[in-house]
Amino acid sequence: MISKIWLNILWCSGFLLAVVVGSVLVSLYRNRYIYRFAKTVNGFPFYPVIGNLHKIGKTSPQWKTRRRHFVKSFSPSILKSFVEFFYTNSTALVDALRKPDRPDLYIAFQNYSIDGFCEAIMGRNYNTQKKSEYSIVEDLDRLQEICRKRCVFEVFNLSVVIWGFIHEGLKTLGYLKAVSEFVNVILKDKRRDFKQSPVIADTTLKIADTLLNGDMKLTDKEIEDEITLFLSAASDTTGTTMAFIVTLLGMYEEVQEKMYEEVMTYVGDKAIGPEDLHNLKYTERVILESMRILPPIPTVGRHAKQDIHCGSKVIPKGVDIYINIIKLHRNEKFWPDPLRFNPDRFLPEEVAKRPKYCYIPFSAGPRNCIGKTYAIMSMKTSLANIVRNLKITSKYKSLEELNFHSFVTMRTITQLDCHFTARKKE
Which residues contact 49 (CB under 8 A, 6 or more apart)? Predict the structure, then answer.
């Protein structure tokens, strides 16, 4: 009797092992071109998620319709109304950066981005910069780190079930649950506010109001997914970019001082408002040049829905295309001395000399970043507030000292060396 039980256990174990091994082999074969790409993309260990845990890059048939609704939520009038939230949250960020025990630079800027998003888009500030009870940024970072290390294999939709029995799989499900709980908290609060003060549909609704007013006919899960996407995109890319920018400012003191002079000339010590941002032209060039030399997303993917003719070459229909943004941004054909940090590359007369698509930090085409202007306005506000209050220094002398890895966003392997001291007011 005992021997039969053990034989059954062994048989079941062998069957499960065969399923797992088969899953891995089939997935590796199906995605062999992606793995070949991962080995060669400019030296960066890039690991796409393949499977049904998060179908990154999959095209939803509803995306065009939804985008048409969302693009109205990024109108100039709505974006201008967000600047006061960017400013108040940047003041909390400045206070955090002053402290000797400040958090990791990526975390600090992501928390700022989360707070700005929640207050501007959802109508409430959850003060993640000050409250330790919310770990949304850390949870999103841990998810990305796990996905960077591992691929999720999909065969007969068994990938998550199999992976869930693995230690990191269980941790990942826990992080996903934590992110979902945070999003549901802010959605619950927003629904309560929306019920008390309903918003009539028009062409100037914020994203949250657009999702909740009923016109889009989305399920609760679809609304949660959309908010999660906007939340993670707003925090991750903007937070990472800002961490890179302040580090570059610490490396290039002359650029930092020129930016400081501009801010003090056009803004001074008063609260920063939407009318000030237009005058901060050098500050914007600093942001654009930072995103050229250190794009937060180093690679973007597309799927060819038809044959594409590129000179003498043809990209056949059905092929997945990966565009190496960081290599494009450092191509000497378009960017002489590409590793030199020079914001004046983005003077209007210099921009006019280059092809439009040699610079795509926000991607390009119909699926470009819908929040581009939102991100630029948020960064201009916060960076202006930082530079006028704090002097930034860094031990780095050149970009070659920085080592990166990437999953979705590009990060340094170690924490960034960046220090902040209060400026002496004259």
Answer: 56, 147, 151, 152
